[in-house]
Amino acid sequence: MALTSKGNRRVLKKAQPHLSTGRFYFALLIVVLVFGSLVARAAYIQVVEPERLIFEGDRRSLRADTTTVQRGSIMDRNGRELAVSVPVQTVWADPQRVHEGHGLDNRERWLALAEVFRTDADSLMAKVADPNRRFVYLERKVTPGVAEFVRQLGIPGVYLKTESRRFYPAGEIAAHVVGFTDIDGLGIEGLEAIYNQVLTGVPGERLYRKDAAGRVVEEISVTAAQQPQQLTLSIDQRLQALAYAEVKKAVRYHQATSGSAVILDITTGEVLAMVNSPSYNPNNRADAQPHRLRNRAITDAYEPGSTVKPLAVIAALEHGVIKPNQVIDTSPGWLRIGGRRVSDPKNRGPLTITEILETSSNVGTAKIALQTGIDNMLDTYAAVGFGNDTGVAMLGESFGVLQGRQRWSDFEVATLSYGYGLTVTTLQLAQMYAIIGNGGVRYPLTIQRREGTPVGEQVISKETADTVLAMLESVVANGSGERARVRGYRVAGKTGTTRKAVAGGYGDEYVTLFAGVAPVSNPRLAVVVTINEPSGDEYYGSQVSAPVFAEIVGDALRMLNITPDHLQDTQLKAAGWVDVPEFLRARSN
């Protein structure tokens, strides 16, 4: 038994190494598999999919600081601000920090916050209800008083940050020209939209790396900010305010639907003023209705009526059809053309070309047009810019309608000569009169300040332009434009009154216009006034638009310090000067 027991122990001792070797290899296999999987995982992360590892590392160490850039200013030609960006505070919240700091426990503070924001407390608190969110706006671009109130409330997780807000010092006066931006500072109307990239600029950025202790260990890159450009307009804020006040007053007085006025610098093609009524306040657009946002001076096209009669005369003179001193018989005061009737208010008999414009004779103008021919008429109309853009490059500009069809009836040719059968904008009509005042030279119009005199195109001979300008001066001095006279200055211009087209013909609503040039001795300004749908007994251009023209032109010429050229109708008295006859009469009384 002892031997047997000793033999078993020997067997067991010999079998022991076999079991240890198996375990060793099994353990070795496990170790190899573990390390192999770790190496494979590391290789996968670093070779096959390294982006996530880099992202996680950068997320914990990379930081970026941005340099904010204010939006560029919009200035008038004299440096007055029409649009400027000002720093304001925006209220935002970190919902996670709000919950960590038990910021929702004190409802009274949220009620106070909702009151200054003019909103409901429950909806305000709902914005921070999700603790997993890290950012939410509570109120954008608040006033300094509201920002200070939020700071004093001290709600955990509610913070202030500086943003930029657009402010328009001129308000409704220049709203249609300048336009406005949205809440994020992007232009969406007017020049703000057209020149958005120019005015925006590019923020700067500093990229660096921090360690766990918050120390800067690496400066990676620094990108300098690209400053925005300043936009300087051709608009003169003084003339803009003057024209707006007069148009607004006329629209209100005549209970009209709308009104527009444009002032051009004849010598440069610059737009000095462009106004519309009704307008809107770009600083507070809560109640800005769509019809108030339209820049009617360039978007709304009307049949111009008698304001284009000078073009019929120009076309005839340019093609040698008539002479400046020619007499045309308008008897018996009406003319039948193709079964249709063209008429004047009364029989005026034989009239000179100047008298045809003075009395605004449809019969005389129609006879001139029929002699001139439709092709010559259309060429002249197109030469002054009708049916095309003015070059001003503004949002929503209409080209108007100047038809170019092959066949025209004689009646259509006749009506075209006194402003029916085509449409033009207030700006296009101003361009036409600027060409006449500039000796027949056409400049592309601009809304930006122009340095020097541009290269123009001679579209009408100087002789013809000067001849018609003299005729238009007689219209104001002796004819239908009498109420457009400006004391101390020689003025040339033409009235216009058109009935608005409706389905099947023309209705009972009118558009009244006056277009003119001043001073005649050295033309500087071309001005057009359009009053749309006046109510009441006065609805002619001579009654409605001409007086507005006179007020605008008179004040504008004096404001620009332009020398009077017609002192015969003024009485200038030097200091200490005494009118002796008047003095003696006063003493005798």
Automatic annotation (TrEMBL):
Residues 259-553 form the Penicillin-binding protein transpeptidase domain. Keywords: Carboxypeptidase, Cell cycle, Cell division, Cell inner membrane, Cell membrane, Cell shape, Cell wall biogenesis/degradation, Hydrolase, Membrane, Peptidoglycan synthesis, Protease, Septation, Transmembrane, Transmembrane helix. Gene3D superfamilies: 1.10.150.770, 3.30.450.330, DD-peptidase/beta-lactamase superfamily (3.40.710.10), Penicillin-binding protein 2a (Domain 2) (3.90.1310.10). Pathway: Cell wall biogenesis; peptidoglycan biosynthesis. It is found in: Cell inner membrane; Membrane. Its EC number is 3.4.16.4. SUPFAM superfamilies: beta-lactamase/transpeptidase-like (SSF56601), Penicillin binding protein dimerisation domain (SSF56519). The keyword Protein transport does not apply. Pfam families: PBP_dimer, Transpeptidase. It is a single-pass membrane protein. The chain crosses the membrane at residues 24-44. Belongs to the transpeptidase family. FtsI subfamily. HAMAP family: FtsI_transpept. This is Peptidoglycan D,D-transpeptidase FtsI. It comes from Pseudidiomarina fusca. The gene is ftsI.
